[in-house]
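Technical note accompanying the year-one report. For the benefit of new consortium partners, we illustrate the data format agreed upon in the data management plan: each record pairs a sequence with a C-alpha coordinate string. No post-processing was applied to the example shown here.
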Amino acid sequence: MRALAILAVIVIHTTTKTLAASNDIPGFTFTFFMNQATRFAVPLFFMISGFVLELNYSFNQNYFTYFKKRLSKIFLPYLFWSLIYFYLVYPHPLTSFWPFKDALLYGTASYQLYFIPALLVFYAFFPLFNYCYRFLANKWVMIVLGIAQLILLYQTYYVRPLSVPYPFAIALLNYYPFILGMVASHHQDFLQRISKWKIIIGILSAVFAVAVFIQGRTLYLKTHNYLYFYTQWRPSVLIYTVAIAALLYILFNKLNINIRIIQFFSKLSFFVFFIHIIILEQFWSLIGKKIVGGEIFFNLLFFLAVAGVSYLVAYLAHKIPKLSILTG
Protein backbone atom coordinates (compact mmCIF):
# COMPACT_ATOMS: atom_id res chain seq x y z
CA MET A 1 0.00 0.00 0.00
CA ARG A 2 2.91 2.33 0.71
CA ALA A 3 4.43 1.63 -2.70
CA LEU A 4 1.07 2.19 -4.38
CA ALA A 5 0.59 5.44 -2.46
CA ILE A 6 3.91 6.86 -3.69
CA LEU A 7 2.95 5.93 -7.27
CA ALA A 8 -0.32 7.80 -6.71
CA VAL A 9 1.69 10.82 -5.49
CA ILE A 10 3.69 10.73 -8.73
CA VAL A 11 0.44 10.60 -10.73
CA ILE A 12 -0.82 13.66 -8.85
CA HIS A 13 2.35 15.62 -9.57
CA THR A 14 2.73 14.63 -13.23
CA THR A 15 -0.92 15.30 -14.05
CA THR A 16 -0.89 18.61 -12.15
CA LYS A 17 2.10 19.69 -14.24
CA THR A 18 0.24 18.74 -17.42
CA LEU A 19 -2.95 20.53 -16.35
CA ALA A 20 -1.04 23.69 -15.44
CA ALA A 21 0.55 23.77 -18.91
CA SER A 22 -2.53 22.79 -20.90
CA ASN A 23 -4.48 26.07 -20.66
CA ASP A 24 -7.53 23.83 -21.10
CA ILE A 25 -8.09 22.16 -17.73
CA PRO A 26 -11.75 21.20 -18.38
CA GLY A 27 -10.80 19.73 -21.76
CA PHE A 28 -8.17 17.38 -20.31
CA THR A 29 -10.74 14.99 -18.84
CA PHE A 30 -8.49 11.94 -18.49
CA THR A 31 -5.71 13.97 -16.88
CA PHE A 32 -8.16 15.64 -14.52
CA PHE A 33 -9.74 12.32 -13.55
CA MET A 34 -6.38 10.69 -12.78
CA ASN A 35 -5.37 13.76 -10.79
CA GLN A 36 -8.51 13.50 -8.65
CA ALA A 37 -8.72 9.70 -8.41
CA THR A 38 -5.25 9.52 -6.81
CA ARG A 39 -6.01 12.09 -4.09
CA PHE A 40 -6.19 9.27 -1.55
CA ALA A 41 -2.39 9.06 -1.54
CA VAL A 42 -1.39 11.40 1.30
CA PRO A 43 -4.24 10.53 3.72
CA LEU A 44 -3.38 6.87 3.05
CA PHE A 45 0.25 7.56 4.01
CA PHE A 46 -0.93 8.93 7.36
CA MET A 47 -3.18 5.91 7.86
CA ILE A 48 -0.31 3.51 7.13
CA SER A 49 1.92 5.44 9.56
CA GLY A 50 -0.63 5.07 12.36
CA PHE A 51 -1.04 1.36 11.56
CA VAL A 52 2.69 0.60 11.56
CA LEU A 53 3.56 2.75 14.60
CA GLU A 54 0.84 1.08 16.68
CA LEU A 55 2.09 -2.38 15.71
CA ASN A 56 5.70 -1.60 16.65
CA TYR A 57 5.41 0.72 19.64
CA SER A 58 6.27 -0.48 23.13
CA PHE A 59 4.59 1.53 25.88
CA ASN A 60 7.47 0.80 28.25
CA GLN A 61 10.14 2.49 26.17
CA ASN A 62 11.51 5.91 27.05
CA TYR A 63 9.86 8.73 25.08
CA PHE A 64 13.14 10.32 24.04
CA THR A 65 14.55 6.95 22.95
CA TYR A 66 11.42 6.34 20.88
CA PHE A 67 11.42 9.81 19.28
CA LYS A 68 15.16 9.76 18.60
CA LYS A 69 14.78 6.43 16.81
CA ARG A 70 11.96 7.75 14.62
CA LEU A 71 13.73 11.06 14.03
CA SER A 72 16.99 9.37 13.01
CA LYS A 73 15.21 7.57 10.16
CA ILE A 74 13.43 10.59 8.78
CA PHE A 75 15.13 13.86 9.73
CA LEU A 76 18.55 13.40 8.07
CA PRO A 77 17.02 12.52 4.66
CA TYR A 78 14.56 15.38 5.07
CA LEU A 79 17.38 17.83 5.86
CA PHE A 80 19.51 16.52 2.98
CA TRP A 81 16.76 16.78 0.36
CA SER A 82 15.58 20.14 1.68
CA LEU A 83 19.08 21.49 1.08
CA ILE A 84 19.13 19.99 -2.42
CA TYR A 85 15.78 21.49 -3.37
CA PHE A 86 16.30 24.86 -1.69
CA TYR A 87 19.75 25.60 -3.10
CA LEU A 88 19.97 23.54 -6.31
CA VAL A 89 16.58 22.61 -7.76
CA TYR A 90 14.72 25.82 -6.91
CA PRO A 91 17.82 27.98 -6.31
CA HIS A 92 18.04 30.52 -3.51
CA PRO A 93 21.13 32.59 -2.67
CA LEU A 94 23.65 30.64 -0.63
CA THR A 95 23.31 33.29 2.07
CA SER A 96 19.61 32.47 2.50
CA PHE A 97 19.91 30.74 5.86
CA TRP A 98 16.84 32.23 7.52
CA PRO A 99 14.52 31.47 4.59
CA PHE A 100 15.95 27.94 4.58
CA LYS A 101 15.16 27.64 8.28
CA ASP A 102 11.54 28.46 7.49
CA ALA A 103 11.54 26.06 4.52
CA LEU A 104 12.82 23.30 6.81
CA LEU A 105 10.23 24.07 9.48
CA TYR A 106 7.27 24.15 7.08
CA GLY A 107 8.46 21.73 4.39
CA THR A 108 8.39 24.30 1.60
CA ALA A 109 11.78 23.67 -0.03
CA SER A 110 9.79 21.56 -2.51
CA TYR A 111 6.07 21.04 -2.76
CA GLN A 112 6.06 17.37 -1.68
CA LEU A 113 8.07 17.97 1.49
CA TYR A 114 5.25 19.46 3.58
CA PHE A 115 4.31 15.86 4.45
CA ILE A 116 7.43 15.29 6.59
CA PRO A 117 6.95 18.02 9.25
CA ALA A 118 3.30 16.93 9.62
CA LEU A 119 4.42 13.32 10.04
CA LEU A 120 6.88 14.44 12.72
CA VAL A 121 3.98 16.07 14.58
CA PHE A 122 2.24 12.68 14.65
CA TYR A 123 5.47 11.00 15.79
CA ALA A 124 5.77 13.51 18.63
CA PHE A 125 2.19 12.97 19.85
CA PHE A 126 1.92 9.26 19.11
CA PRO A 127 2.84 8.05 22.64
CA LEU A 128 -0.05 10.14 23.97
CA PHE A 129 -2.39 8.61 21.37
CA ASN A 130 -1.13 5.18 22.35
CA TYR A 131 -1.68 5.91 26.06
CA CYS A 132 -5.27 6.97 25.28
CA TYR A 133 -5.87 4.11 22.87
CA ARG A 134 -8.67 2.44 24.86
CA PHE A 135 -10.57 5.71 24.85
CA LEU A 136 -9.84 6.54 21.21
CA ALA A 137 -10.79 3.05 20.00
CA ASN A 138 -14.27 3.24 21.53
CA LYS A 139 -16.86 2.97 18.75
CA TRP A 140 -18.72 6.13 19.73
CA VAL A 141 -15.53 8.12 20.20
CA MET A 142 -14.39 7.08 16.72
CA ILE A 143 -17.75 8.17 15.29
CA VAL A 144 -17.51 11.56 17.03
CA LEU A 145 -13.88 11.99 15.91
CA GLY A 146 -14.86 11.08 12.35
CA ILE A 147 -17.74 13.55 12.26
CA ALA A 148 -15.50 16.27 13.73
CA GLN A 149 -12.88 15.55 11.05
CA LEU A 150 -15.48 15.77 8.29
CA ILE A 151 -16.74 19.10 9.66
CA LEU A 152 -13.18 20.45 9.84
CA LEU A 153 -12.50 19.34 6.27
CA TYR A 154 -15.79 20.88 5.10
CA GLN A 155 -14.92 24.21 6.72
CA THR A 156 -11.43 24.15 5.21
CA TYR A 157 -12.59 23.20 1.72
CA TYR A 158 -15.83 25.17 1.35
CA VAL A 159 -15.63 28.07 3.80
CA ARG A 160 -12.07 29.18 4.51
CA PRO A 161 -8.62 27.60 4.92
CA LEU A 162 -7.67 26.48 8.40
CA SER A 163 -6.04 29.37 10.27
CA VAL A 164 -3.44 27.16 11.96
CA PRO A 165 0.26 27.27 11.02
CA TYR A 166 1.91 24.44 9.11
CA PRO A 167 2.68 21.68 9.91
CA PHE A 168 -0.02 21.54 12.60
CA ALA A 169 -2.74 22.39 10.06
CA ILE A 170 -1.88 19.30 7.98
CA ALA A 171 -1.81 17.15 11.13
CA LEU A 172 -5.22 18.45 12.21
CA LEU A 173 -6.67 17.71 8.78
CA ASN A 174 -5.39 14.13 8.98
CA TYR A 175 -5.77 13.09 12.59
CA TYR A 176 -8.64 10.72 11.75
CA PRO A 177 -6.80 8.66 9.08
CA PHE A 178 -3.86 8.36 11.48
CA ILE A 179 -6.01 7.22 14.44
CA LEU A 180 -8.06 4.95 12.17
CA GLY A 181 -4.80 3.29 11.09
CA MET A 182 -3.93 2.70 14.76
CA VAL A 183 -7.31 1.13 15.46
CA ALA A 184 -7.19 -0.98 12.28
CA SER A 185 -3.90 -2.55 13.41
CA HIS A 186 -5.81 -4.14 16.34
CA HIS A 187 -8.68 -5.38 14.17
CA GLN A 188 -7.01 -7.23 11.33
CA ASP A 189 -9.35 -10.17 11.94
CA PHE A 190 -12.27 -7.87 11.11
CA LEU A 191 -10.48 -6.62 8.01
CA GLN A 192 -10.08 -10.22 6.91
CA ARG A 193 -13.79 -10.90 7.49
CA ILE A 194 -14.97 -7.99 5.36
CA SER A 195 -13.27 -9.57 2.34
CA LYS A 196 -16.66 -11.06 1.47
CA TRP A 197 -17.78 -7.48 0.80
CA LYS A 198 -14.93 -6.77 -1.61
CA ILE A 199 -17.23 -6.25 -4.60
CA ILE A 200 -19.37 -3.73 -2.69
CA ILE A 201 -16.27 -1.97 -1.35
CA GLY A 202 -14.81 -1.93 -4.87
CA ILE A 203 -17.98 -0.38 -6.29
CA LEU A 204 -18.03 2.21 -3.48
CA SER A 205 -14.38 3.07 -4.16
CA ALA A 206 -15.15 3.61 -7.85
CA VAL A 207 -18.21 5.72 -7.02
CA PHE A 208 -16.22 7.90 -4.62
CA ALA A 209 -13.42 8.28 -7.18
CA VAL A 210 -15.95 9.62 -9.69
CA ALA A 211 -17.55 11.80 -7.00
CA VAL A 212 -14.20 13.38 -6.08
CA PHE A 213 -13.54 14.01 -9.79
CA ILE A 214 -16.95 15.61 -10.39
CA GLN A 215 -16.65 17.72 -7.26
CA GLY A 216 -13.21 19.08 -8.16
CA ARG A 217 -14.16 19.73 -11.78
CA THR A 218 -17.51 21.36 -10.99
CA LEU A 219 -16.13 23.73 -8.36
CA TYR A 220 -13.16 24.65 -10.55
CA LEU A 221 -15.42 25.48 -13.50
CA LYS A 222 -17.62 27.55 -11.21
CA THR A 223 -14.85 29.51 -9.46
CA HIS A 224 -11.65 28.97 -11.54
CA ASN A 225 -9.93 28.50 -8.17
CA TYR A 226 -7.17 25.88 -8.39
CA LEU A 227 -7.65 25.09 -4.70
CA TYR A 228 -10.86 23.18 -5.42
CA PHE A 229 -9.13 20.48 -7.42
CA TYR A 230 -5.57 20.68 -6.13
CA THR A 231 -6.24 20.01 -2.46
CA GLN A 232 -7.00 16.59 -0.99
CA TRP A 233 -8.31 18.04 2.28
CA ARG A 234 -12.01 17.50 1.64
CA PRO A 235 -14.71 15.31 3.22
CA SER A 236 -15.17 13.32 0.00
CA VAL A 237 -11.47 12.42 -0.17
CA LEU A 238 -11.46 11.19 3.43
CA ILE A 239 -14.40 8.84 2.75
CA TYR A 240 -12.78 7.77 -0.53
CA THR A 241 -9.48 7.04 1.26
CA VAL A 242 -11.17 4.80 3.85
CA ALA A 243 -12.89 2.84 1.07
CA ILE A 244 -9.68 2.52 -0.97
CA ALA A 245 -7.67 1.47 2.11
CA ALA A 246 -10.17 -1.30 2.90
CA LEU A 247 -10.21 -2.47 -0.72
CA LEU A 248 -6.41 -2.52 -1.02
CA TYR A 249 -6.02 -4.38 2.28
CA ILE A 250 -8.46 -7.05 1.07
CA LEU A 251 -6.91 -7.36 -2.39
CA PHE A 252 -3.31 -7.44 -1.25
CA ASN A 253 -4.13 -10.19 1.24
CA LYS A 254 -5.86 -12.22 -1.47
CA LEU A 255 -3.45 -11.73 -4.36
CA ASN A 256 -0.52 -14.11 -4.62
CA ILE A 257 2.25 -11.51 -5.02
CA ASN A 258 5.90 -12.31 -4.35
CA ILE A 259 6.66 -10.62 -1.01
CA ARG A 260 10.21 -9.83 -2.14
CA ILE A 261 8.87 -7.69 -4.98
CA ILE A 262 6.61 -5.82 -2.55
CA GLN A 263 9.45 -5.30 -0.07
CA PHE A 264 11.70 -4.10 -2.89
CA PHE A 265 9.32 -1.35 -3.99
CA SER A 266 8.33 -0.44 -0.44
CA LYS A 267 11.95 -0.13 0.68
CA LEU A 268 12.71 2.32 -2.15
CA SER A 269 9.53 4.38 -1.74
CA PHE A 270 10.97 6.85 0.76
CA PHE A 271 13.87 7.72 -1.56
CA VAL A 272 11.44 7.96 -4.50
CA PHE A 273 9.23 10.32 -2.49
CA PHE A 274 12.16 12.70 -2.12
CA ILE A 275 13.74 12.49 -5.59
CA HIS A 276 10.80 12.17 -7.98
CA ILE A 277 10.26 15.95 -8.25
CA ILE A 278 13.85 16.38 -9.49
CA ILE A 279 13.24 13.67 -12.12
CA LEU A 280 9.89 15.24 -12.97
CA GLU A 281 11.44 18.68 -13.55
CA GLN A 282 14.15 17.17 -15.77
CA PHE A 283 11.67 15.28 -17.96
CA TRP A 284 9.37 18.29 -18.09
CA SER A 285 12.20 20.41 -19.48
CA LEU A 286 12.64 17.80 -22.24
CA ILE A 287 9.08 16.80 -23.18
CA GLY A 288 6.76 19.22 -21.44
CA LYS A 289 7.09 22.27 -23.68
CA LYS A 290 4.51 20.78 -26.01
CA ILE A 291 2.01 18.09 -25.05
CA VAL A 292 2.21 15.69 -27.99
CA GLY A 293 0.82 12.30 -28.92
CA GLY A 294 -2.56 12.79 -27.30
CA GLU A 295 -3.51 13.47 -23.70
CA ILE A 296 -3.61 9.85 -22.52
CA PHE A 297 -0.38 8.82 -24.25
CA PHE A 298 1.48 11.87 -22.97
CA ASN A 299 0.37 11.38 -19.38
CA LEU A 300 1.22 7.69 -19.35
CA LEU A 301 4.62 8.42 -20.89
CA PHE A 302 5.31 11.22 -18.41
CA PHE A 303 4.26 9.12 -15.41
CA LEU A 304 6.19 6.00 -16.49
CA ALA A 305 9.32 8.04 -17.20
CA VAL A 306 9.26 9.81 -13.82
CA ALA A 307 8.33 6.70 -11.80
CA GLY A 308 10.70 4.39 -13.68
CA VAL A 309 13.77 6.63 -13.47
CA SER A 310 13.01 7.55 -9.84
CA TYR A 311 12.94 3.88 -8.83
CA LEU A 312 16.04 3.12 -10.90
CA VAL A 313 18.00 5.92 -9.20
CA ALA A 314 16.68 4.77 -5.82
CA TYR A 315 17.78 1.20 -6.55
CA LEU A 316 21.29 2.29 -7.58
CA ALA A 317 21.61 4.62 -4.58
CA HIS A 318 20.64 1.81 -2.20
CA LYS A 319 23.52 -0.24 -3.59
CA ILE A 320 25.94 2.25 -1.96
CA PRO A 321 26.52 1.18 1.66
CA LYS A 322 25.13 3.52 4.34
CA LEU A 323 23.99 6.14 1.79
CA SER A 324 20.34 5.51 2.63
CA ILE A 325 20.98 6.95 6.13
CA LEU A 326 21.44 10.31 4.41
CA THR A 327 19.12 9.98 1.42
CA GLY A 328 16.31 7.78 2.70
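Partners are asked to follow this layout when depositing records. The chain has two domains: 1-33+259-328, 39-255.
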